[in-house]
Give the backbone structure.
Amino acid sequence: MTRVLIPADAGARAVGAGSLARAVAAEAAARGSPLDLVRNGSRGLYWLEPLLEVATPAGRVGYGPVTAADVPGLFAAGFLEGGPHAKALGPVEQIPFLARQNRITFARSGVIDPLSLADYRAHGGLKGLERTLSLGPAATIEEVVRSGLRGRGGAGFPTGIKWRTVAEAAGPRKYVVCNADEGDSGTYSDRMLMEGDPFALIEGMLIAALAVGAGRGYVYVRSEYPQAVATLERALTLARADGLLGERSSALPRAFDIELRIGAGAYVCGEETSMLESIEGRRGEVRAKPPLPAHRGLFGCPTVINNLVSLATIPPILASGGEAYAALGFGRSRGTMPIQLAGNVRFGGLYEAPFGVSLGALVEEIGGGTASGRPVRAVQVGGPLGAYFPPALFDTPFDYEAFAERNGLIGHGGVVVFDDTVDMARQARFAMEFCAIESCGKCTPCRIGSRRGVEVVDRIIAGIEPAKNLGLLRELCETMRHGSLCALGGFTPYPVESALDHFGEDFARPRRAAA
Amino acid sequence: MTDDPRGWAARVRVIVAGQESKPDRLLPVLRAMQQEFGHVPREAVAEIATALNLSRAEVHGTLSFYQDLSEEPRGRHVLRLCRAEACQAMGAAGLAEAALARHGLAWGETAADGSLTVEPAYCLGLCSCSPSALFDEEPVGRLDAATLDRLFAGAAAS
Ligand SMILES: Cc1cc2nc3c(=O)[nH]c(=O)nc-3n(C[C@H](O)[C@H](O)[C@H](O)COP(=O)(O)O)c2cc1C
Ligand code: SF4
Ligand code: FES
């Protein structure tokens, strides 16, 4: 039976993959031509979603974007044999956007049946775990250190060093927490991985647990991701049945199980200590550090807390060795980064590549410029706390340090493109508004300063005492930067000040008050 | 229970049954209440506190912190419209404001027939198919005015 793949990925479903799958199944039944319909993850080529793939003897061929209405035509064109059709894309792996990538973390997403452990194994799954079992905990951690992997959640802290700290910390129990809160706008790599290759996360967490001596893990997923939660839940059940998790882990030196926790709509719960509070059942208020979670984390015990992409990158690092991973990259940013091209961009999607690609190449060449066809005016990198970059700074290489030098950050790898209709004063206003909405309330500069920030930008937009209010806005940014406990209050100045610095003209024309 | 005419205590007991009586179950219990009843009413707080060995203040503190949880009933359906940057870049702000105006609603409001509550969301992870929304648990991308109106109509009809 021919294998036909239609993503169950939320992004693909959002544009009709569900009804496409139903239509394909119905048409196949009506024609009496049986097929093996698999709901895979997304390849991350979102402008082509829904992307239907057929596994032909010559390899995978694609059709996209296709909808339920295209289905009779696809059958008539003989798509099960890869027949020609207006929406035919040819061999999927030769689509330039995909062919140019170097997929390590996302090697399997969109390729395999996400809920088949057999598929997972056949595509290199569990090789990292095997290596960990033969290396032992200490050498596993050294392998991660050698890889140079830095946390993909935003802060870029070396993962191996964090693990070493937890391994050496004394405590009655230890925990591994996966941060799948993915609150940054413009990002969805955690979601794609949960929906497209959930066993990679499970394997990564298992390796972490064996390395540091943890018996229990949590995955904290945001409530905005019901599809990812459902897929992960089923993957956990399958992993337990297979003996990878739970009590029956006879082939493993210790038992380890993972519990899913679902957020409740609070951006700040992506901050690691706020997340721990939330898992413990409390308000998601940020804890002062020290103590570090690595010393006193969940329930007061030593805790590894890592972003989902960090954890899912562990299996390939172990499987191929830390050195191979570290051989890729730029400066102190080693390995690959799953970059997400989003917003007003022609080819929006997930682009995993070694660090070092320039922002301009990402936006103009790989992303193909704007979706609207108008000139690119601004690009926000790294989520709502990231700076806006003008085309004049497009030579900036994708690298933690290079972005920091230009008063920006790469965060979780989100790149949001805006065309020339954007009003940067309103973007600055939104940054302040977002901070006010999401502040956990613990520090005054964040809680009150952000509200004042909204008012001050409103006055600038209305043309009221612009010079005085621009000065006030700069002062507020200064106060927030230095008086905030965490990056929500501390980094909100990045989008605001970058808008002021690079797009000052938008603050100089009076308009009617913000809608 | 004189101050519990609608029997919330019994409903809480059903949700808490099978859960360990530990404080860290609080958020899962509150989420389950919200999902089942569209809100977590004041009357339920004391019962939840007793069941999980917490004070009422602790339960209320958690309940009031999270945007997904509400003390007031929400509509039969919840439409979450993304207000974040990738969606803004594709015109989400104007689209949402116009749709709300057409249907006579403000952010967070529930339609008079109780069919739908419209909530702001800050990224739904659908940023390469923006503007986007989540209708109950169904993702919707490449939103336009017509699709939005269909969602409003669909809510009213079900
Ligand atoms: C306001 C705020 C929100 C954050 N949101 C996330 C998030 O959604 N996902 C994430 O992995 N890290 C997030 N972080 C970073 C975490 O605090 C932490 O650095 C990270 O989970 C550590 O994992 P890593 O080293 O693998 O990146 C956030 C930080 C702040 C201050
Ligand atoms: S900066 Fe804001 S979010 Fe962070 S701890 Fe302070 S009040 Fe809470
Ligand atoms: S910014 Fe709207 S879905 Fe991500």
Q: What stands out?
A: The CA atoms of residues 456 and 471 of chain A lie 10 Å apart. Chain A has 21 helices and 16 strands.
